[in-house]
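Run log // design_07
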């Protein structure tokens, strides 16, 4: 079957996840496209790249800027618009079936102009989690599916390793979303006093830039100053990494801390952390309850004190950490993009090769 993904966001192709840090949504497109190609489908991905390239059986092509550019195939069996409903009708492609893959907040789908566009193109709508589907609009005649994401192979294939000493907690909470300040409060006043030798590694390009003296958004300035002062309490800022390097760093950590947001329905770092065998402590917000086996591979905590207490336990209790790490990597929980591709074939889209 001929499948075309279209994403008008940042430029990337199938090589990017191995070469540079990349957002979870973009890595999802690369992962699913590769998995579908491995299963015998003819897969094309159009993004904001300049030159075409072929990677792992997938044709990566420039997204056309006007109707005269001919980088796309004339016909495709399935057109998958990534994030933006406008891509369902703006591309010069004849498609047998149209799909909107909702990778972000679904609130924009309720806008009248978007509802009209969906009504005209009548795509299947694919969500990342049940929480995202519940936050979206009523179907309006469109078929809606929930397709649980997979994890990239560098995380799934990472060999278990002994936790670092002193113990390390990691997070990729975004510094502009507000929840990182909340996490730093818990660390400074609760976790660090209980485990003085523990380290908290914050993966953030913005914070790294700010600490290096580079310009950052004005609202971030106080947080940069705060992180600098918290170095004495074990807080360290790390640059985001390509998939393999990040998996290698996280496999020796002790716990992933996910403060979360109600609108974060994907929880991309939580997926990677669990795949590498990293127990998680999370607030039950957004899609987090669908990413953790609560009480087994991590803990969903009801309040601030519980967040602190459970984190301290995992940082200090070897048996608790090992049990949760083993559960996170248990065969019933591991889900690769190849599993996602198989789900698409057998359950929803009835793809035929």
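design_07 sequence
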């Amino acid at each position: 079957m001929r499948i075309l993904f279209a994403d008008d966001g940042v430029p990337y192709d199938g090589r990017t996840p191995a070469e540079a840090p990349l957002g979870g949504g973009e890595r999802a497109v690369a992962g699913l496209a590769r998995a579908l190609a491995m299963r015998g489908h003819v897969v094309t991905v159009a993004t904001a790249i300049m030159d075409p390239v072929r990677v792992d059986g997938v044709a990566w092509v420039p997204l056309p800027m006007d109707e005269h550019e001919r980088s796309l195939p004339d016909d495709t069996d399935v057109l998958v618009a990534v994030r933006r409903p406008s891509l369902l009708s703006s591309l010069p492609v004849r498609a047998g079936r149209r799909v909107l893959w909702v990778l972000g907040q679904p609130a924009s789908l309720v806008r009248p102009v978007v509802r009209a566009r969906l009504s005209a193109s009548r795509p299947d709508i694919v969500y990342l989690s049940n929480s995202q589907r519940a936050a979206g609009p009523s179907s309006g005649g469109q078929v809606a599916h929930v397709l649980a994401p997979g994890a990239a192979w560098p995380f799934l294939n990472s060999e278990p390793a002994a936790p670092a000493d002193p113990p390390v907690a990691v997070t990729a909470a975004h510094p502009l979303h507000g929840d990182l300040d909340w996490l730093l409060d818990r660390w400074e006043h609760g976790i660090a006093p209980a485990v003085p030798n523990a380290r908290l590694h914050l993966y953030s390009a913005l914070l790294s830039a700010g600490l290096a003296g580079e310009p950052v958004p004005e609202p971030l300035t106080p947080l940069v100053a705060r992180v600098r002062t918290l170095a004495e309490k074990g807080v360290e800022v790390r640059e985001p990494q390509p998939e393999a390097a990040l998996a290698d760093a996280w496999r020796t950590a002790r716990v992933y801390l996910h403060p979360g947001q109600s609108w974060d329905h994907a929880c991309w770092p939580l997926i990677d952390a669990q795949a590498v065998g990293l127990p998680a402590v999370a607030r039950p917000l957004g899609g987090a309850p669908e990413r953790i086996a609560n009480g087994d591979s991590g803990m969903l905590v009801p309040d601030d004190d519980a967040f602190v207490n459970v984190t301290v336990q995992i940082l200090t209790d070897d048996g608790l950490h090992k049990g949760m790490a083993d559960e996170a990597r248990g065969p019933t929980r591991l889900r690769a993009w190849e599993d996602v591709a198989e789900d698409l074939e057998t359950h929803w889209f009835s793809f035929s090769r």
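The chain has two domains: 2-150+336-348, 154-328.
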